[in-house]
Amino acid sequence: xxxxxxxxxxxxxxxxxxxxxxxxxxxxxxxxxxxxxxxxxxxxxxxxxxxxxxxxxxxxxxxxxxxxxxxxxxxxxxxxxxxxxxxxxxxxxxxxxxxxx
Length: 101
Description:
The protein is mainly beta. The protein has one helix at about 30-40, and strands spanning about 5-10, 15-20, 25-30, 45-50, 55, 60-65, 70-75, 85-90, 95-100.
């Protein structure tokens, strides 16, 4: 599989992230969190290890926990409130980053 390197950010571009490494997979998510956020039946996402994500401007990111106990943490830009990425912590797996595409 090819090595994946990308850079993206929020709508206002005040908060950006870089990706390195190979995504684990790309899929459609039909969970209620994605449905509510996208106002759609699904979201297209990639899943990558969180250690392969580097964020700029950490002070411009707000964190919101979803799915108690906090299994899913959503990271939003404090300027435009755009979702940057989500991190999920599942038992016996590394912390994964979910990135909307």
